[in-house]
């Protein structure tokens, strides 16, 4: 399946990592990671840094799936607001999820410091807008919940929003703990770092057609009949992880994004914050290192790639219209646009760890709008599982929250 269509900015902006290394023999490794996107990359980073022998397998060109279509906004906020999540899953788990997300942004920053990779990582602030009166009510409830649990937040009323951001709206929440990055540049840079430092094996393109649980591990079989023997297999294949799951645990959605031509630096809003809103589906935007505006949203339930792709032109017009409503004095020209497919869950949380009874197949499924921060959490949790260390985050993000029928 095509994961995206159009011209994703990162794949145009960066030189292609032209890497070709198909598997040509049977192979044995301690840990096999399926997927070379930002999730598989972060998992490999954690394993390599702790002396765990691993190898990556991907059916596509390296890091050329959903990673290139990401708008790469790193926020501790989760798609489900904290005050609603507390009602849904309980205070301890909800607050634990938000605190883990907050910590993961710093952990990602430390990955760049450790590897020296220049992935255009930059700390920025976030402005979370009330889209309407219901959104403003939600914003106020959210503010109280975050303050109660000592999470970074500041409430902007109508007057403050207009003064600080020039936006005529009801109000917003602000925090200065977010970040942004270039996902493709980051993923390929980190992989190259570990190929050099730890001789990380990467096999691409390699299609895994079958897998079998064997004593003390798994045997994977490629479409060419080669066998991969491993003690653990890590599934970091996004929504394409379906072939490795006993049942579907995610919903598929189509999303749309664009990037403008560069504008003058004087035209940008306060701190070049990440901006998003309470409406569902929500509109979101950020800036890039070369002074462009990137925005996205207009999500729809995914049905098939052709329908998703046909909607692109109309969705781009709607995104521009939403931007013009916020900032009518900023003239933008669309330079590139794309659409992609992503996964979400009913409770807004990812799935990390093993399926009950399958201890040696581990999942790093960063579903939702916070995929990259969830991926960092998954990488650490999986590292700890393999090392035999307890990690309380498995109780928050694990499959144990599913009912016997596979529902949340």
From TrEMBL:
One of its GO terms (molecular function) is oxidoreductase activity. The keyword Phosphoprotein does not apply. Residues 30-382 form the FAD dependent oxidoreductase domain. It comes from the Bacteria. Pfam families: DAO. This is FAD-dependent oxidoreductase. PANTHER family: PUTATIBE OXIDOREDUCTASE, SARCOSINE DEHYDROGENASE-RELATED. Keywords: Oxidoreductase. The keyword Secreted does not apply. It comes from Sphingobacterium kitahiroshimense. Its EC number is 1.-.-.-.
